[in-house]
Amino acid sequence: MASLLSRPSVFSLAANDEPKMPRDNESWVADLRAERESALSDLRDALLRNLRKALATWPHADESLLEDAVQDSLMRVLERIEQFEGRSRFLTWATSIAIHTAMAELRRRRWKDVSLEKVVSDGDFAPVQLTTSGQTMDGKLVQQALVATMQRLIEQDLTEKQRTALKAELKGMPQDEIARHLGSNRNAVYKLTHDARKKLKAGLEAAGFTAGDVTAPL
Amino acid sequence: MPLSESEIDSLLRLVSLTEDVEINCEQCLAAVAEFAEQKLAGKSIREALRAVEHHLSVCAECRAEYEALLRTLNNIGGQGEG
User: Fold this and answer.
1) Which of A162, A184, B26, B29 could form a disulfide with A196 if both were Cys (CB 3.0 to 4.6 A apart)?
2) The whole model's pTM is what?
3) Are A140 and A174 in the same domain?
4) What is the predicted ipTM?
């Protein structure tokens, strides 16, 4: 299958060289496993159509990016085809992979020249001025205490890596980019911030804050 | 520049949603297609997909990908069964 993918001609074949037949999940998987050119061509066309729709409102999602994302997605779909369990339609599954691939590239382009250090140092966890005009005095005091406790927990209970990853994530930096700066991967960054959130949650509970305090709007 | 009020608010929201065991982005991606189809069909979500639903509530990137997938799903039915 990889040899087919490495030949550009596979994707430049007109899809109507062979009759297009609707495929069910089993047919998609069987045809792709059998390296049928018509299946690869049909899948490529479908993914491109779906990506155009999925990313219609995204700036910089131009045709060139979408074409490249489709090529990468075809490789990924073929690599993971044994993991497809048939719990959704095949095209839905393949499209989810294509969207993931395209959006990762869009995020990478947007953030590739932004330094993690700058993102994190730009915003420190300094006290914020709370606009609590709609709250009672008790409510204001609780919210101010909550924020102060959160800031203390962030500085005292989190590791440097957890703090960095959490701050960067809150500033909107993509997890893949945080991972690249930390020499890690997206799943490891997720674990880092998940562990940080668990520590903060435990710390707030230990300090006597209730779920209601934490979920009340500032 | 300190964290804005909305960023602090986001952090509090994330902390309140935090569970001891959560799936990661890769595990979410593996099941999000099924989750999206079930949601769109208005079907009840089986237990194994609850973890996907929760992950989408705490991961902005996966949520954006899921929302983009939903936008395409109405068209997929016309592209052959799979």
Assistant:
1) A162
2) 0.84
3) yes
4) 0.90
